[in-house]
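Today's session is about reading a structure prediction critically. Students often jump straight to the picture, but the first step is always the sequence itself: look for stretches that repeat, for charged clusters, for runs of hydrophobic residues. Only then move on to the predicted structure, which in these notes is written as discrete structure tokens rather than atom positions. Here is the chain we will use throughout the hour.
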Amino acid sequence: MCTGKCSKCIGVVLFPLAICAIISNILLFFPNGNVLDPKNITDLVWYFHGILGAGILIILPAFMMVGAGGAGCCANRCGMLLSMLLAVLGTTGGAYCVVISSLGLIRGPFCDIGNGNYSYPFQNDSLTDNYLFNQTTWSICKKPENIIIWNIVLFSLLLGIGIIEAVLCLIQVINGLIGFICGTCMRKRKTDIAGM
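Below is the predicted structure for this chain, in token form.
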């Protein structure tokens, strides 16, 4: 596979991942499908790690990757260079999503522990009695309903998406560098040499 086709494949895969990340981040604003007062939403959601990090910062390089892979070969060295530079931006966005999602999972949800007192009840858990591995502690969160599972599923989804996006963008950095240095596909180069 030449670098242009590889670039195009990576770009096409990144689009649905970015859309899923944006949707997941938006869903975190509505715990269990409820509209809450903004001060009662987990504060890490406001870092927009799915919308900005794994969303917009991935869609920009994805467009360039698809464009650089245009006809299947990377005759466009400038396009491959630009796709490589934007892939670095995409890697940063994916890594940002991974960091914030990890913090969201470690910290736990912001929930009502009774009497309308919202807090992070699992913030100081040790690794041995972490809420992720001890479902009996989940009853401490009274409202919103199912907030713990909501946060675990969405932050885990964003964590996985961020890892996949960062790896794909790193692959594109290497692919773009090869495409920039080597130029066209080997198959096309052999055809040109044979025609001489």
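Discussion point for the tutorial: Helices lie at 3-28, 49-68, 77-107, 147-182, 186-194.
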